[in-house]
Design a protein that fits this description.
6-stranded parallel β-sheet; Rossmann fold; 357 residues
Length: 357
């Protein structure tokens, strides 16, 4: 029985990137005969305060404990056949843990990443920690890795500069057991719902669309729904806010008819894996997205959503969908079909399992 050690930043079942990149495959790996060990860097109490203002001492203590756990872990690394590192083994400093794994213990390290993490991009709440980050570590992890699991082609092309053994492993959706509109109560709203879901770190992208939403709301009667971990600092008359909750995330998401994913056209955004669009589409929600990075591969303009290059496109596409419920239904069905065929857990299972060969 082969053994896999998973190293990742946050407690299991919390962060979306962990849940949808490898955690949903764990039972499948076990069924295939692998023995799994999960080792997050942060504990639950530290995770709960990580993105809140203040708590400097508690955050520092939580990070210190994470380093102690990582050091202790090195004494047992020799037990494992594979070590799967999601993003990084430690959040700050040099990649000493990965170096020991690859160079001293000679273990097969699989390096998995789903953002352009070689670029600085740290939240305002943790800008002090940002100074301690060593973003250049990404190139070293690519060089040392046995295999690289990259979330999209843009990330894979970066990784191939340092290692030829790269697999494009997209972020995937379980369309059977989780993101399945047939398993939830149908939405009760009689008005169309235009929505956005995400974290405090990405809500800033919505700012560019507020004038469009405001203008359209003068003519069309619709709900503007935001699902996030923090309440937005702006207000519109038709705005409704739902605090993100893992227990109700699918039911809440299912209230939407149209899903928004605006992005800036910059190197960081190009590294994103289109997770919002994937979620929308799996739930038969028509996605309106910026044509940045992998979005142009996921969304086929006019077939399963719309690619919006400028504010005119956003306004035109939104208005088209607001006045055509039948079109929303057709594009929503096409969107879910795309996810099932190309971005579902079921469609990508063999690709994921081949990483451990």
């Amino acid at each position: 029985m082969k053994k896999i050690l998973f190293l990742f930043p946050y407690p299991s079942g919390t962060a979306a990137s962990q849940r949808f990149r490898f955690e949903q495959y764990l039972e499948i790996l076990k069924q295939k005969g692998f023995q799994i060990t999960l080792k997050p860097f942060l504990d639950e109490p530290t995770w709960q305060i990580l993105y809140k203002k203040g708590f400097f001492v508690r955050k520092a203590w939580g990070i210190l404990k994470g380093f102690v756990r990582r050091l202790a872990l090195l004494f047992s690394v020799w037990h494992y056949d594979f070590v799967f590192v999601h993003r990084e083994a430690t959040p700050i400093g040099l990649p000493f843990v990965e170096w020991f794994i690859c160079k001293i213990f000679r273990k097969k390290m699989i390096f998995d990443f789903d953002d352009a993490i070689w670029l600085p991009n740290t939240s305002e709440q943790n800008k002090i920690v940002a100074r301690l980050k060593f973003h250049q570590k990404t190139q070293y992890l690519c060089k040392w890795a046995y295999k690289i699991s990259a979330g999209n082609t843009y990330l894979a092309n970066y990784a191939r500069k340092y290692n030829s053994n790269v697999v494009v492993n997209p972020t995937t959706i379980d369309t059977k057991n989780w993101h399945n509109p047939d398993l939830i109560q149908k939405k009760q709203n009689h008005k169309p719902v235009v929505g956005w879901t995400g974290t405090h770190s990405t809500i800033a992208y919505l700012a560019m669309l507020l004038p469009v939403i405001s203008k359209l709301s003068e003519t069309w009667d619709f709900i503007f729904l935001i699902i996030s971990d923090k309440k937005p600092d702006f207000w519109l008359p038709n705005l409704q806010f739902l605090s993100w909750n893992k227990t109700t995330e699918i039911q809440d998401l299912a209230q939407m008819d149209i899903g928004l994913m605006p992005l800036a056209d910059d190197p960081w955004a190009k590294g994103k894996c289109g997770f919002k669009a994937l979620q929308y589409m799996a739930m038969e929600i028509v996605p309106l997205v910026s044509p940045v990075g992998v979005n142009t591969e996921i969304v086929q303009n006019g077939y399963n959503g719309f690619l919006c290059k400028n504010l005119i496109d956003w306004e035109k596409s939104l208005e088209d969908l607001l006045q055509n419920p039948e079109k929303r239904k057709i594009l929503g069905a096409n969107a879910r079909k795309t996810i099932i065929e190309r971005y579902s857990l079921q469609a990508n299972t063999s690709n994921f399992l081949n990483i451990f060969v």
